[in-house]
Amino acid sequence: MKTLDVDYLIVGAGAMSLAFADQLLSDTSATMAIVDRRATPGGHWNDAYPFVKLHQPASMYGVNSLPLGDERIDTDGLNKGLMELSAGPEILGYFSRVMNEVLLPSGRVQYFPMSHFRGDSVFSSLVSGESTRVNVRRKIVDGTFFQTSIPMTHTRPFRHGPEVDVVSPNGLAQMWRRPELTPPHYAVLGGGKTAIDVVVWLLEAGVEPDAISWVVPRDAWLLNRAFNQPCATSFKMTMGGVMHLMQAMAEAETVEGLFDRLEETQQMLRLDRDHRPEMYHCAMVSEAELALLKRVKNVIRKGRINQIEKRGMLMERGTQPMPPGTLYVDCTASAWSKRPPRTVFQGSTITLQTVRTCQPCFSAAVIAAIEAAVPDQELQNAMTNVVPLPDGPADLLDGTLFSLMNQHQWGQNRDLNQRIRNMRLNCFRDLTTDAQMQDPDNLALLEALRQITPHAIDNIHTLKSKLAAEMMAV
Ligand SMILES: Cc1cc2nc3c(=O)[nH]c(=O)nc-3n(C[C@H](O)[C@H](O)[C@H](O)COP(=O)(O)OP(=O)(O)OC[C@H]3O[C@@H](n4cnc5c(N)ncnc54)[C@H](O)[C@@H]3O)c2cc1C
Questions:
Q1: Distance CA 317, CA 260 (A)
Q2: 83 with 59: CB under 8 angstroms?
Q3: Distance in angstroms (rounded) separating the CA atoms of residues 310 and 293
Q4: 180 and 317: one domain?
Q5: From CA 159, how far away is CA 313, in angstroms rounded?
Q6: What's residue 111's pLDDT?
Q7: pLDDT, tens digit, 9 for 90 and up, residues 10-32
Q8: Looking at residues 179-197, what average pLDDT do you find?
Q9: In the prediction, which pLDDT does 14 show?
Q10: Calpha distance 125→35 (Å, rounded)
Q11: Which of 330, 359, 376 is the last residue in one of the domains?
């Protein structure tokens, strides 16, 4: 067996691993080996449907040292007025540049694509079969924890025979291979971001809203992208949004009440005011996208699909007849697995997870900065309380609480805090530029925020206790 000596062995070459490696490269003189079973860097983006786009601004995605996109504000389309969103192929090209223009030229990073990590510091090439044992001087970094799942590669959670046509969104984009088939009707299966992308794509391609049925097992709360812009370009909206969030957190008596308040300020959106969302996955839309989505009136809310037959769908809560020749588009993959969070720093292992709500790349870069700057493991973990990936509305409580706790801890270390504040991936990075601070309204907003935050934290604890008591009573 071949051997290799490095300081860090990083398993996975997805967005989080690369954001970690990039930050570690700039903050230390460490050597690294990056191992991934895929052929090219970028993780799940390698299998994404061609019309996928980020749902958050590109300026907050990728690695710190290399910008993604041009920091441009879109001037037309459904994202008009907001920071650009990169498309899948652009993201893949970007991660290839990160590897080839940043990581490898440093001479301190080695990359092993098409290599399966088998555990015990051993990986095997999937093409030559050769195994390599890595002598890891410092740590193994697990960049595979989220087990991102996408429709092209997941196992469908419903049965269907060959008599019905079921495709992934990738298959939908391959329709040009079947010009003889123009489906009379589309059924989009799933209530998450992928389904939203597909419905928007079909409508923009000219499909009539009545020719689409949308199966929504659970309605979702959707973040309004206008409130999730980098501070540099959008101080008042973004920080105003944070202020509304803290106010709502401080005053709400229930989780429902919390979301009602966030809906009043239009930070949280939903498809239909008659249907209360049970899902919250940080999916983000613009108001123009939502308006388009609302044109689809055939929304089927009968729970999950068990089976699809020629006559229609057998669902949790009844049968749904469907027009003959319907093309079913499977968007039911859950983007991430529902594993309990793991402590980030455990002995000689680092497990990459989110330490600020819904910010995977920024979180991975912060974990690297902490690895470089903080020698004590207990303190490292105090700075990286894992913000669990949300599933339902109540998860916004922990998402907010742990993000605030971590931020507070970073603030205790001046150098580290400065480094984190300046990160490209930090949406709050230009919070206190001279230009921002010359505006008295901005100063007043920051002061109000400083005052309300402790009340928000207190009330989050109260809301969590109430929820725990309700769970006990059930
Ligand atoms: C369609 C879609 C859109 C998204 N949009 C956004 C967005 O706009 N903003 C945002 O912040 N997040 C977004 N996300 C969330 C997304 O999950 C993260 O941004 C991020 O890409 C996850 O990266 P990762 O590195 O954790 O995982 P992955 O991309 O899954 O990478 C993990 C890698 O580990 C490799 N691997 C696993 N096991 C092994 C093994 N044993 N040996 C070797 N290699 C292994 C896999 O091959 C894979 O390449 C989106 C997700 C999806 C699915």
A1: 28
A2: yes
A3: 27
A4: yes
A5: 10
A6: 98
A7: 999 999 999 999 999 999 999 99
A8: 91
A9: 97
A10: 10
A11: 330
Per-residue pLDDT for 130 more than 90?
A: yes
Phi first, then psi, for residue 261 (nearest 5°) are -65, -40
Distance 37 CA to ligand 1 centre (A): 13
Rounded to the nearest whole angstrom, what is the distance from the C-alpha of residue 172 to the centroid of ligand 1? 22
Quick: pLDDT tens for 243-262.
999 999 999 999 999 999 99
Please, which residues have CB within 8 angstroms of residue 43's CB and are 6 or more apart in sequence?
12, 13, 14, 15, 16, 17, 36, 148
Which of ligand 1's atoms lies nearest the C-alpha of 117? 42
Q: List, chain by chain if needed, residues with CB within 6 Å of any ligand 1 atom.
A: 11-17, 35-38, 43-44, 48, 52, 54-56, 61, 116-117, 143-144, 146, 148, 150, 194, 335, 360
Residue from 11, 44, 149, 367 to probe ligand 1 pocket by mutation (most atoms less than 8 Å from CB): 44
Q: Number of structural domains, the chain?
A: 2
d(CA 160, CA 187): 14
Residue 175, SS3? helix
| Residue 206 backbone zone (phi > 0: left; psi -120 to 50: alpha; other: beta) | left
**Max Cα distance, the chain (Å):** 66
| Lookup: tokens for 268 | 């949280």
Residue 266 Cα, ligand 1 centroid: separation in angstroms? Answer: 29
Tell me how far apart the alpha carbons of residues 459 and 246 are, in angstroms, rounded to a whole number: 10
CB 82 within 8 A of CB 59: no
Residue 51: name the closest of 221, 171, 183 by CA.
171
| Same domain, yes or no: 238 and 372 | no
Q: In which band, very low, low, confident or very high, does the pLDDT at 201 lie, cut at 50, 70 and 90?
A: very high
At residue 467 the predicted structure's pLDDT band, cuts being 50, 70 and 90, is very high
For residue 19, how far is its CA from the centre of ligand 1 (angstroms)?
Answer: 12
Cα–ligand 1 centroid distance for 326 (angstroms) = 31
Regarding whether 142 and 33 lie in a shared domain, the answer is yes
Domain span at residue 383 reads 2-148+337-411
> DSSP for 204-232?
HTT--GGGEEEE-SS-EEEEEGGGSS-HH
* Residues 42-55: tens digit of each pLDDT: 999 999 999 999 99
The one-letter amino acid at 370: I
Do β-strands 186-189 and 327-330 pair in parallel, antiparallel, or remain unpaired?
A: parallel
CA–CA dist 371, 357 (Å, integer): 20
Do 173 and 311 fall within a single domain? yes
Distance CA 374, CA 84 (A): 35
